[in-house]
Amino acid sequence: MNFRVSDERIAEHNRPRLPALEEDYGHLGDRLARRRVDIEALTRAAMDFRVELPSWALNAGGTRFARFTAPGEPRTLVEKMEDCAAIHALVRVTDAISIHIPWDRPDSPAELKAFTQACGLRINSTNSNTFQDHAGQVHSYKFGSLTHTDAAVRQQAVDHNVECLALGAELGARAHTVWIGDGGNYPGQVHARRALDRYLESARHIYSALPGECRLFLEHKLYEPAFYSTVISDWGTSYVCAQALGDRAFSLVDLGHHAPNVNVEQIVARLIQLGKLGGLHFNDSKYGDDDLDAGSIKPFQLFLIFNELVDASKDGSVRALDPAYMLDQSHAVTDPIESLVMSSIELVRAYVQAHLVDRDALARHQENNDALMALQALKEAFTCDVSPILAMARSRAGGAIEPVAAFRDIGYREAKTGERRGQTRQTARAL
Ligand code: RM4
Ligand code: MN
Ligand code: MN
Q: Max Cα separation, the chain?
């Protein structure tokens, strides 16, 4: 039996911390009650929150320059699932996983499904990979995939996506995300309109192969790997394509895929309004698509994004809003488990804080053009330390009051270092 983070070890870790948490929670409850906010409703919201873990982020990540391996890294997909189970045991909001094909193509989908279910997890989405060449592949993606000038390359990329859809159906996945690296490094290299036409033609073939209730998410990115122009470069292009494809196609917003200083929360609001927000890839960045931990650089932006999401969820006039929350990060210098634990906590924090916004007051300030008080209404929620709510929600769900401390005390990584010797099979994502 492989080592795991057991409920008993977590409970043992929580026991001495519980009295202080109850005191802090009671105190915060009194303060919120003065503002006519029910702390229990916030705790329930925290317990109901869910975010998907990325299968491609469980190994130590790399940069363009190097990847430094770490002891005890998962070597196989099953070992990655073990790590996901450890994360979920600690935070209790990460029971779904997004897998990247072919990096994480299971040898036996049925066995993977059974194993994840036994761990209390599920595979919720698949991601295709036509941004690099894979072993045994006939055509190269050096000059593009779904938008390549050669129909045979486009067909190979479409077939790969259709294979992902079939695999997803076997695993019970509910969404498939397409992100392509297609674009040009030089002016003139790619014909702007024809490349987009080819994308749409290829995407239509993928769309028509969507099984059952599965949704198709189109992920845009401003630049990289193409450094001059990218075919699906921005939310406008992604929206137009999602609209052209049909009701089950949506845009996916990765927080790191925009020009510097772009107002991402407004993009989220636009896509919600247009009924085309499929999901989000959470991470953080300072300069480019840095894939740092969610909330580590711009926590206020994270809060403002959740402010839009929560505002819309309370607005009866908003249609078709069922966004998938996913983490998409790369951990070059931290333990991936610890980073994913911290990031998921930061998402719940922003989500709970967004629930704290006094929306009636905010609406009044907006009607009165009182800019200062409107900002104040948001800041009041953002500056409230909701940590006791998050810790109480985790503890009630069986998770850890202090997840990183618990993870270290329980000695999971040390145990895995003993169990997992030898080469890692999977490619970790490089930036
Ligand atoms: C890309 C993009 C995709 C992810 C790959 C690995 O930059 O964010 O979502 O699948 O990286
Ligand atoms: Mn992404
Ligand atoms: Mn990215």
A: 66
For residue 429, the model assigns a pLDDT of: 57
Confidence band (pLDDT; 50, 70, 90) for 56? Answer: very high
Ligand lying nearest the CA atom of residue 288: 3
- Summarize pLDDT for 357-410 with one digit per residue, the tens: 999 999 999 999 999 999 999 999 999 999 999 999 999 999 999 999 999 999
pTM above 0.85, yes or no: yes
Find out whether 381 and 336 touch, Cβ atoms under 8 Å: no
Q: Is the CB of 179 under 6 A from ligand 1?
A: yes
The H or E element containing residue 266 is: helix 264-273
> Best mutation site among 125, 141, 218, 429 for ligand 1, i.e. most ligand atoms within 8 A of its Cβ?
429
Q: Please give the angle made by the CA atoms of 224, 308 and 257, to the nearest 5 degrees.
A: 0
**Does the beta carbon of 429 lie inside 6 Å of ligand 1?**
yes
Please tell me whether the peptide bond between 102 and the residue prior to it is cis, using omega within 30 degrees of 0.
yes
What pLDDT does residue 422 have? 74
Separation of CA 238 and ligand 1 centre (Å): 15
Q: For a pocket test of ligand 1, which of 125, 254, 292, 326 has the largest count of ligand atoms closer than 8 A to its C-beta?
A: 254
Which residue CA neighbors atom 3 of ligand 1 most closely?
179
The string of pLDDT tens digits covering residues 86-145 is 999 999 999 999 999 999 999 999 999 999 999 999 999 999 999 999 999 999 999 999
**Residue 89 host element (H or E):** helix 77-91
Q: Which of 273, 211, 221, 219 is nearest to 248 (CA)?
A: 211
CB-ligand 1 contact for 79 (6 Å cutoff): no
Q: Which two tokens stand for residue 315?
A: 């607005």
Distance of CA 119 to the CA centre of its chain: 20
* Closest ligand to the CA of 430: 1
Q: How far is the CA of 180 from the centre of ligand 1 (A)?
A: 9
Which atom of ligand 1 lies nearest, measured to the CA of 254? Answer: 8
Q: How far apart are the first and last CA of the chain?
A: 35
Tell me what pLDDT residue 320 has.
Answer: 79
Query: Sorting pLDDT into bands at 50, 70 and 90, what band is 428?
Result: low
Distance (Å, rounded) from C-alpha 327 to C-alpha 93? Answer: 12
Strands 175-178 and 122-127: parallel
